[in-house]
Amino acid sequence: MMKRFEGQVAVVSGGADGCGRAAALRLSQEGAKVGILDVNGEMGMKTVADIEAGGGEVLFIRTDVSNGAAVHAGIKAVMAAFGRIDALYNHAGTVIVKPFLETSEADWNRLMAINVNSMFHSCQAVLPHMIAAGSGAIVNTTSISGITASALEAAYCTSKGACIQLTRSIAVEFRDQGIRCNSVAPALIRTAHGMREAEELVTLGQDWSDGDVAKMQGRICEPEEVAAAALFLLSKDASFINGETLIVDNGQFATT
Ligand SMILES: NC(=O)c1ccc[n+]([C@@H]2O[C@H](COP(=O)([O-])OP(=O)(O)OC[C@H]3O[C@@H](n4cnc5c(N)ncnc54)[C@H](O)[C@@H]3O)[C@@H](O)[C@H]2O)c1
Asked: Could you say which of 8, 74, 143, 208 has the lowest number of CB atoms within 10 Å?
């Protein structure tokens, strides 16, 4: 196992489950102390136990990342515990599957709050520490749905498109302070989020059988594969990659 994050501190939002959990585990295996901000306390505790069982140091802060004050408090707690933040992986997010005309203003605002505002809050909380240190790396989880549109997911596609632009904006504004910001844009992943999304799309008449998924992306993506892409972008291996969105889809986008 490489040790690309030895001596570093990484924060993972949505690090209790799915790709965020896979990233938190691997960041720890590669030497980082890890702060996890996630709303799911039960899975958060499981991830903490797994990291500690491997000899790693971790702090879990139960946080709804759509709440700015809670995110700032969480980052403050990580700084108090570990003294620095070198890497920020903004992974927490969710999806609403609904016909556009049935999408309420409350649905729209909730999705923007969880998917977009969360990144606004965490970047605002973490960037001053990275600026003071003169270095830092941020990765945001976006989606191929932030680049190509899919029916029944207008709010989701819009939110992920916004996250891609936030990624570029931060890259441009903070490059000269030694900070990079990139995103990973996955296709369908075998996580609670991905399974619910596919199930709800099937209920509304779309085809998401294993065969349909195989036609689009060869096979379903595993959470560890998204984590590996995110860690590459967070690591010094990606030292000259900034403002980029790395599509993690096994060639699906290449066929469009
Ligand atoms: N699963 C897919 O097919 C897929 C594809 C592309 C992009 N994504 C993106 O990945 C993310 C979903 O992650 P996953 O697929 O690993 O699924 P997941 O559901 O296993 O993990 C998401 C994690 O985010 C946490 N979370 C959700 N809302 C939160 C909130 N308000 N505050 C704090 N934590 C919160 C959950 O508790 C969970 O631990 C989203 O950003 C989504 O847009 C997923």
From this structure: 208
CA distances from 142 to 55, 165, 211, 220 (A): 31, 10, 25, 17
Residue 35, ligand 1, Cβ within 6 A: no
Ligand 1 centroid distance, CA of 206 (Å): 22
Q: Atom 23 (ligand 1): residue with closest C-alpha?
A: 14
Mean pLDDT estimate for the chain = 98
CA 194 from chain centre, in angstroms, equals 14
Q: In terms of Cα–Cα distance, which of 243, 199, 233 is closest to 95?
A: 199
pLDDT band at 183 (very low <50, low <70, confident <90, very high): very high
CATH H-level, domain 9-188+222-251: superfamily: NAD(P)-binding Rossmann-like Domain (3.40.50.720)
Sequence-distant (6+) residues with CB within 8 A of 170 are 123, 127, 138, 179, 181
Domain locations in the chain as residue ranges? 9-188+222-251
Buried b (16+ CB within 10 A) or exposed e, 81-93: ebeebbbbbbbbb
What distance in angstroms lies between residue 238's CA and the mean position of ligand 1's atoms? 24
pLDDT tens digit sequence for 47-93: 999 999 999 999 999 999 999 999 999 999 999 999 999 999 999 99
CA of 14 to the centre of ligand 1 (A): 6
pLDDT in tens, 101-135: 999 999 999 999 999 999 999 999 999 999 999 99
8 Å CB contact between 7 and 33: no
Tell me which residues are annotated as active site. Answer: 156
Residue 248 forms beta bridges with which residues? 186
> What atom of ligand 1 comes closest to residue 186's alpha carbon?
6
Six token digits for residue 74: 């969480």
